[in-house]
Amino acid sequence: MCLEDIYVTPDFRGKHVGSMLIKSVAKEAVENGCHKMDFVVLNWNPAQEFYKRLGAVDATVKYQGHCFRFSEEDLKKIASDCE
User: What GO molecular function annotations does the UniProt record carry, in alphabetical order (predicted)?
Assistant: First the structure.
């Protein structure tokens, strides 16, 4: 499963809302036969510590992989080169 975005507004932080959201997503993943959940956290985002407390591993460090992305514009350019 790939988690695209999750955001808890400042008014709800510290009230376990983030934990409840992650638990719900994890439950959905398990129920649908997912074996892992990948997500990207930007370097500046303090939520990294939240995810680590829940047991998430920084895959960039552990697996030495990098996340790549094609933008919509890139996809259109690449697709236009397809014969």
Answer: N-acetyltransferase activity
Which residues are identified as catalytic?
51
pLDDT tens-digit readout, 28-59: 999 999 999 998 898 899 999 999 999 999 98
Q: Is 1 helix (H, G, I), strand (E, B) or coil?
A: coil
| Cα distance between residue 11 and residue 68, in whole Å | 33
Cβ contact 51:41 at 8 Å: yes
pTM of the full structure: 0.75
Determine phi and psi for 44, rounding to 5 degrees. -80, -10
Whole-number Cα distances in Å, 69 to 23, 35, 38, 60:
27, 22, 14, 15
